[in-house]
Amino acid sequence: MPQDTTTASDDTTGTGTAVRAVINLDLEGPRISRHIYGHFAEHLGRCIYDGFYVGEDSDIPNEGGIRLDVVEALRALNIPNLRWPGGCFADEYHWMDGIGPKEDRPSMVNTHWGNVEENNHFGTHEFMALCELLGADPYISGNVGSGTVREMSEWVEYLTRNGDSPMVRLRKQNGREEPWKVPFWGIGNEAWGCGGNMSAQAYTDEARRYSTYCRNHGDNTLYRIAAGARDDDYSWTKTLMESMNCLGCQREPTSYFQAVSFHYYTIPGPWEDKGNALVFTDDEYYLTMLNAQRVDEIIEGHSRVMDCYDPKKRVGLVLDEWGTWWNVEPGTNPGFLFQQNTLRDALVASLHFDIFHRHAERLVMANIAQTVNVLQAMLLTDGESLVLTPSYHVFEMNKGHQDAASLDVHLLGVTAREVEGEELRTLSASASVKGSTALVSVSNLDAGSAREVSFDLRGRSVTGVRGRILTADTLQDHNAPEHPESVAPRDFDGAETTDDGLRVALPPHSFVTLELTLA
User: Fold this and answer.
1) 263 near 230, Cβ under 8 Å?
2) Looking at 321, 329, 485, 515, which residue is catalytic?
3) Can you tell me the mean pLDDT for 272-293?
4) Which of 141, 228, 458, 493 has the CB geometry, 3.0–4.6 Å to 186, for a possible disulfide?
5) Beta carbons within 8 Å of 368's beta carbon, 6+ residues apart
6) Active site residue 190
7) Mind listing the domains of the chain with CATH numbers?
8) pTM, to two decimals
C-alpha cells in the first residue's frame, strides 16, 4: 500500500519548513477506480426538485424536466456514477409509484426529510434519463427497510431484462423498449438506523435473501453492495464477511454481494450542534481536518477485517456517503440539510481523495453527499442561477486520477499539529500515472503558514509541468450568485524545476495539482 511517512517538525515561524516528497514514477500501484469520484442524489430538500429536476414546463433550459446546466457542470467532472433514490428515503420508496403517466402517480410523505409531500414525478425513467445525459453509471439503492424481496427483484427485472416478461411488458408500456444497463445495486441503506434499525446479523440474513433474488438478466451483471457500517463499527463488517464466506463452506466469498459499504461524515461538533458552515474559528477548522483525516484509520480498520475473510481482495469496500455535515443555514427548512460550502469543505475533499487513492486496492467506490443543494454539494441552485462550490473544483482538478495507476508518495518532514491530543498531518499528497501523464495532488492544511515541498521524482523524465491552485484569502470564503468565483482554480506558478524534480511553494490553506508530462 502507498506509504505516508510523517514526522513532527518544530516549525512555528510561518515561513514553512521544507518537506521532501519522493515519488517513483515508474513503480505503478493499484488502479484508482474512477468510481471513488461518485455522487449521491436523494429525495431530500432541493437535491432532486429544483436541483436536478425542474419539470418540462420550466423556463430553465431542460430536457424532459432535467436541468441542463446541472448536467453540463457534472459532465465536466467526468461523473462516473450516481446513487439514487437515497439514503434514508430509499427504504420508504416504492418504485412502482414512480412510473407511468405523472398524473397517475400516487404521492407519498417523505417522513425522513422535512415531512413534505413527494409527488413521484421524478422516478425510475427520469433517473435513468438523467444518467444517460450525464454519461454516468446508475447506482440504485433498493428498499429493504419497508419493501419486499419481490418488489426489489421486479425492479431489477423491469430495468435490465430483455425479451418478454411481466416487468418487460410494463416497461415497454411506459415507453422504454430496450433494457438499461444498471451495474450497481445497493441492498438497502443504513440498516442499523433509518433502514430498519436491525442488528448486524438480522440485516445480514435479510440481505442474503434479497440478493438471492436480484438476478442477472441477459448481459447485465449486478454488482451488489451490502449496506454496511456506520463509521468504525467493524463488527458489522465482520458479520457481513462471515456470511459471504458461507461459514467455512467452499462457496466463493463474492456469491451474495460483491461489495460492502460504510458511511462516514466529517462533523467537528456534537450531533446536536454540528457547527456553522460559514462562521468558524481556526481551532474549529483544525478539529474538522482531524476528523476528516480519521477516515484513513476507518478504511484501514474495515480493510483489515475484510482481509481476514478475503485476502485476495475480491470483495470491494464502498464509502457511499461521505462529506461535511454542518448545521443548516439560518432560515432554511431544517429537514432540507442546506449548507454553504467554503474553502474548508474543499480541503476536506482534497484530504479525503489523497486517502482514497492510498487505499485503491480495496476501496472501489465513494459517493459524496450530496450532489446539489444538500450537505457538501457540488452545485447550488437558486432559480436560474447555478453556483459551482469550492468542493466542485477539487473534483474537477482531481479528475485525472480516475482509472489511473496510483503512485506511492513518501513524505518526510511533515509538520504535525496537535489537536485535542491527536496529531493532524498538515500536508497531504497523492499521485497517479496514466500513460505519459502523471498527476500530483498536494494540500497545505496549515491555516496560516506556507510550506515548501521538494519533490524527488524518480524513474521517468519529466518534460513539462502545469500547475493549478485552489485557495482564497480566508478559509471562510465561498461562492454565491453575487460572487460565483471567490474560490476558483487558477494557474499556479509556484513550482520550480530542479535537478531531481520540483520545488513547490504552497501558500497557507491551499490545494494544488501538478500535471507532469513524462518522457
Assistant:
1) yes
2) 321
3) 97
4) 141
5) 38, 39, 40, 322, 323, 349, 376, 378, 391, 395
6) yes
7) 18-29+407-518 (2.60.40.1180), 33-402 (3.20.20.80)
8) 0.94
